[in-house]
Amino acid sequence: MKYIPNTLSISRIVLALSLLLIRPVLGTVYMIVYIAAGVTDMIDGPLARKLKITSKLGANLDGIADYILVVVALITIIPVLSFNPLLIALIVAGFAVLKISGMIVGYIHYKQLMMMHTYAAKMGAVFAFLFPVVLLFGVDENTAIIFLGGYVYLFLIEEMIINIIMPEPRRDIKGIFQAIQIRRKLKNELSD
């Protein structure tokens, strides 16, 4: 039982990578595998918490699996759609800069790589997961990518700010407002 959550995260990586081989992209088989990968994301963390077997490895594995699924989905979907190439380049470059900067800040501050599970990050994962689904319903491709890219920028900026203001690493932090409360509480305790 204790290996099931991590096995689900690993299976998400395998399912995501298999999307690189499935044709046609956005076809029935692609969408079934894609949705199966998304379902593993919805149940691995809650299952680990319910079984009281959460771990640093599990949290990192979950974050890595999430990013692999998003990256593979974008790699496979972008070529079959008619996105504005400049728009894609700007979003990908901005994502890379923000993600790498956040990881560097976290490493400098905590001496470890940080992948947080804030509410904003979880919503970003939901938006990214729904991206190919909304395209099937006729949402304009460029509008969808602008919305997704803008939202991802916001949660990556929040993650970087949390890495800067938190005195200790916490992957399970809900968001920036909780980080501010924790920082104030620790500051008040130190001044008493």
Give a topology summary.
Blueprint: H1 4-18, H2 28-50, H3 56-77, H4 85-110, H5 119-136, H6 141-165, H7 176-191
What shape does the CA trace take? Answer: globular
Helix share bin: over 70%
Largest sheet: none
Number of domains: 2
As residue ranges, the low-confidence spans are none
DSSP helix count? 7
How far the N terminus sits from the C terminus, by CA atoms, comes to: 45 Å
- Approximate strand percentage: under 5%
Counting DSSP E segments of at least 2 residues, the number of strands comes to: 0
Overall pLDDT score: 90
Structural class: mainly alpha
Supply Rg. 18 Å
Element-by-element helix/strand order: HHHHHHH
Notes on the protein architecture:
The protein is an all-alpha fold and 192 residues long. Helix content is 76%, strand content 0%. It has helices at residues 4-18, 28-50, 56-77, 85-110, 119-136, 141-165, 176-191. α1 packs antiparallel against α2, α4 packs parallel to α6 and α6 (141-165) packs parallel to α7 (176-191).
What's a quick, concise take on this entry?
With 192 residues, this protein is mainly alpha-helical. The chain has helices spanning 4-18, 28-50, 56-77, 85-110, 119-136, 141-165, 176-191.
Characteristic key phrases:
2 domains; mainly alpha; globular; 192 residues; 7 helices
